Known about the structure:
The chain has 20 helices and 6 strands. The chain has helices spanning 5-12, 46-56, 58-66, 76-97, 106-129, 177-181, 187-200, 223-227, 229-233, 249-279, 283-304, 312-321, 338-349, 354-358, 369-380, 384-415, 417-420, 434-440, 446-465, 468-473, and strands at residues 2-3, 27-28, 139-140, 157-160, 166-169, 220-221. The chain has a two-stranded antiparallel sheet with strand order 1-2. The radius of gyration is 26 Å and the shape is globular. This is Nematode resistance protein-like HSPRO2.
Amino acid sequence: MVDHDRKTKMISSDMPSKSPRISNKLQVSTPTVPIIRLTELSAASDSVFSAYEHYLRLPELKKLWTSLEFPSWKNELLLKPALQGLETTFRFISIVLSDRRPYANRREWKRRLEALAMNQIEIIALLCEDEDDQKTAPVGDLTSSTSVLARQNSSAEVWKLSDETTVVSQTSEDSLLPRLAAWQKSEDIAHKIMYSIECQMRKCPYTLGLGEPNLSGKPSLDYDAVVKPSELHALKKSPSDRMNLENYENQTLYTTHQILETWIHASKMLLKRISDRINREDLEKAVNDCWLLEKTWKLLTEIEDLHLLMDPDDVLRLKNQLSIKATAESELFCFRSKGLVEITKLSKDLKHKVPNILDVEVDPQGWPRIQEAAIELFRKKESFEKIHLLQALQAIEMAVKRFYYSYKQLLVIVIGSLEAKGNTPFMAVDSSDALAQIFLEPTYFPSLDAAKTFLGEYWSHEHGRYSPERKSKA
């Protein structure tokens, strides 16, 4: 039991004069949290990581993610990998619909990939809405009277809606989406994606230029110059294809993880922007970015869940063909991604921003300054941007832990519990279980947790003090 008399007095000073002071006897029971000894999260060994990197052709992908083609465009290094992840999803749709195996679950694959594409479009649209300067983005104002359309090999469509309004919709020449729209097997899903782009990009200063209707006649992003679809799809074959595996799941595994790694890189860029904006005290935009990061963690979970649709026999055969076997906790497939380990650490390190957000310093003597400042912030509601930011930071924590909890279950379902962790009971939690340590770790924000616990106890005490039942007894 912890005596909170001092905090009680501080809260009482903020309460209306008619509200009675909290009794000095009010005590708060702090929930007992099981002690888990955490080891430092680390990626797999260099040899294991190199094999993973080689399998996915990550060095070549990274060149596409990090190439600076438009130096004045601030969002290039963030939006480019996001758009490339979407473009790779278009290729994934083509792979799934070209699968000739009679036992493949095409219906669910199609539904999942459609949802995945639309969730990516939602995030991309939110990123585009946040453009500080529309003029720096590589767009073409196709509604300008000086615009000239090519007579040959042009995919631009001109619509005259009225005498005063002419709309030009520019379509990418290299993206796979327009081709999917022309293929009978995929035309329905392609058109749904196009309409989703139209709806999601309504508030954006430009549209993507992927064949969406563009009813508002906005300028189109120079998609081919930004995304480089031809170069991206040149990486569609894995080096393992030379092994003649004759296993179609190799393409699905390879493409799934290319999309995953692309969005991991986009999340890393987003984390960098969050840190910069908090340091500059641009809290409103930092809040938006934090909620976006929570969405990208959910997206990573959704991408990983695609493994559920892989054929059990084919995927286990592929596992042995590729010699994928974890001899240590750090060699689980997720820990072979240095990018994933890095964004996990960066997401956790956001906890160090809390003192700056609350304008307090950590007391070296252990006095709960941060907790007191959080209580005051929650009660007064004066700096609501700070409240929103703290809420978003805790939402990120929840999304991170949800990802690793889901991944632990995914391993068991896809490859079996014994395969997932040698011959030890995988579902048991012990000090060597790196995945369980992540999602069972105590909160990243103990001061915020303590502040909310105290406020909850305070209002519970006040409710009991003035409840009708208590008055009737009196």
